Amino acid sequence: NAGVTQTPKFRVLKTGQSMTLLCAQDMNHEYMYWYRQDPGMGLRLIHYSVGEGTTAKGEVPDGYNVSRLKKQNFLLGLESAAPSQTSVYFCASNRDKSYGYTFGSGTRLTVV
Amino acid sequence: DQQVKQNSPSLSVQEGRISILNCDYTNSMFDYFLWYKKYPAEGPTFLISISSIKDKNEDGRFTVFLNKSAKHLSLHIVPSQPGDSAVYFCAAPLTTSGTYKYIFGTGTRLKVLA
Q: Could you tell me which residues come within 8 angstroms of residue B70 by beta carbon, excluding any fewer than 6 positions away?
């Protein structure tokens, strides 16, 4: 029972480099989300998806893109990384709006 | 505009005593609240929830109280144990344009002293 799996767990990028964070869930959840956690800021929603093939912007979407080509996967892309994107990124999913989230264990990203 | 606020960034409590974590919200449309617990290097995990039709929900050592008129909720942990040391987030769902996403507070770091 893997739940929500995020890869990689850690990454260091140079400014301007690109990368993709992968989130995979095996619970057949419709809804998936990407959050970032920064000190003193709590968890802020970047992008989310309400089903396969759909994506929508959250609270802090600038500098990120997402795709949900398969129901079980939700990818978060950084096209040109900036130091302000240094953060811990969490993916989450839920079955429908009545349920709380199941979170992944996070990806710690440092942009130098 | 922080719709869910946790004004205490940290709290220290002696083992066996009560821990009280507070959360305030501004949106009167919120009808459901959750508390999450987060250990270092792990994702948040669901702890307890409360619907706005209730003013109290209890699960073992954890009780959440909701005061709708004050737009305030609190999480009580009795008795506190060292394993409860973690960051606690309160969250409320925001429904816009038919979608449903959770707004989180900034978290309170609880340290239970042995």
A: none
- Cα-based torsion angle of the residue sequence A89, B31, B57, B40 in order, rounded to the nearest 10 degrees: 10
Residue B53 Cα distances to B4, B32, B50, B89, B100, angstroms: 19, 9, 8, 21, 19
A104 touches chain B (CB under 8 A): yes
Pairwise CB contact (< 8 Å): A42 & B106: yes
Single out the residue of A8, A106, A21 nearest to residue A65, CA to CA.
Answer: A21
Which of B31, B47, B102 to substitute to test the interface with A, most A CBs within 10 Å?
B102
Contacts of A42 (CB under 8 A, 6+ apart): B6, B89, B104, B105, B106, B107
Say whether pLDDT at A58 is over 70: yes
Side chain identity at B57, as an amino acid letter?
N
Q: How many helices and strands (H and E) does chain B possess?
A: 0, 11
At A83 the three-state DSSP class reads: helix
pLDDT of the residue at B12: 97
